[in-house]
Automatic annotation (TrEMBL):
<protein>
    <recommendedName>
        <fullName>DUF4440 domain-containing protein</fullName>
    </recommendedName>
</protein>
<dbReference type="Pfam" id="PF14534">
    <property type="entry name" value="DUF4440"/>
</dbReference>
<dbReference type="InterPro" id="IPR032710">
    <property type="entry name" value="NTF2-like_dom_sf"/>
</dbReference>
<dbReference type="InterPro" id="IPR027843">
    <property type="entry name" value="DUF4440"/>
</dbReference>
<feature type="domain" description="DUF4440">
    <location>
        <begin position="30"/>
        <end position="126"/>
    </location>
</feature>
<keyword id="KW-0732">Signal</keyword>
<feature type="signal peptide">
    <location>
        <begin position="1"/>
        <end position="16"/>
    </location>
</feature>
C-alpha cells in the first residue's frame, strides 16, 4: 500500500501555477501604495513597518540597495506633495504579486515603480521596490544652417561609419547597417535622437574651432567617433 502511494505521488504531474490579474488584490495594493507614498512625505515610519517585509530592499536608479532599517531612518517629513499614481498594473501568481505603476510629482516628472509583494503569514508585504526616473527628451535648440554645416561629415569608430548630413533645417544621421534618424540639438555641440534621451553626441573641436569628432555618450560611458571627412 505504501509503495502504491509513493508510485501514485511520483506519477502525479506538477500543477502549473497561473499568472493572472487579480482586480481585488490590485485595489488593495493600490491603496497600500498610496498610503506608502503619503508616508514618505509625512515621515510615517509606522506605515512602512506595517506594509513592508522585514527583508524589504529599495533599489534606486543609481544602483544603490537600501534595507528597511536604513530606509526608515532616512524618512523625514517634507513640504512637497506625495507622488500621484497615474497607472497601475498587477499580476499575481499564488502568494506573489508583481506591481508596475507610474507616478508623477508636482512638476509632472514621471517615475516608474516596480514592486514585488508577497503574502507572508496571511498579510501582503512589500519585499522589493525599484524606482527609476522616466527620461524624456530635453528641450531642443534651433541651429542655423551654418551651425549645422559645421557638424556635417563622415565619422568612424573602429569598423563603424556614421554619416551626418543636413536636409534643409534638419540634421540626419545614418550609421552602417542602421536606419537614418533625425538629430536634434540640445546645445550647439550636443545632439540627441528624439525618443532616446539617454544617449548624446558630444562634438569635439580643435583649437581653431573645427569639429574633429564626437563622443557617443551613454549616461557616463563614452565612445569616440573621429571625423574623417
Amino acid at each position: 500500500m505504501i509503495l502504491l502511494s509513493v508510485a501514485l505521488l511520483a506519477a502525479t504531474p506538477n500543477v502549473a501555477q497561473t499568472v493572472a490579474p487579480d482586480p481585488a488584490l490590485s485595489l488593495q495594493l493600490h491603496r497600500a501604495d498610496e498610503a506608502l507614498l503619503k508616508a514618505v512625505h509625512s515621515g510615517d515610519r509606522a506605515a512602512w513597518q506595517r506594509l513592508a517585509s522585514s527583508d524589504f530592499a529599495y533599489v534606486d536608479e543609481e544602483g544603490g540597495v537600501t534595507p528597511l532599517p536604513t530606509f526608515l531612518a532616512a524618512l523625514d517629513p517634507d513640504t512637497e506633495k506625495p507622488l500621484q499614481i497615474q497607472s497601475y498594473q498587477l499580476t499575481r501568481a499564488g502568494d506573489t504579486a508583481i506591481v508596475i505603476h507610474t507616478d508623477t510629482d508636482e512638476q509632472q516628472v514621471k517615475y516608474l515603480f516596480t514592486e514585488s509583494w508577497q503574502r507572508l503569514n496571511g498579510d501582503w508585504k512589500l519585499r522589493l521596490l525599484h524606482i527609476t526616473n522616466v527620461l524624456v527628451d530635453p528641450p531642443a535648440l534651433t541651429l542655423t544652417a551654418a551651425q549645422m554645416d559645421e557638424l556635417v561629415g563622415t565619422y568612424c569608430s573602429g569598423p563603424d561609419t556614421l554619416v551626418l548630413q543636413r536636409d534643409g533645417n534638419r540634421l540626419l544621421s545614418k550609421r552602417t547597417g542602421a536606419d537614418e534618424v533625425e538629430q536634434r540639438a540640445e546645445t550647439r555641440d550636443v545632439l540627441f535622437t528624439p525618443g532616446n534621451p539617454r544617449i548624446r553626441k558630444v562634438f569635439q573641436r580643435d583649437a581653431s574651432g573645427k569639429v574633429t569628432g564626437f563622443l557617443r555618450r551613454y549616461i557616463t560611458s563614452d565612445v569616440l567617433w573621429v571625423r574623417v571627412s
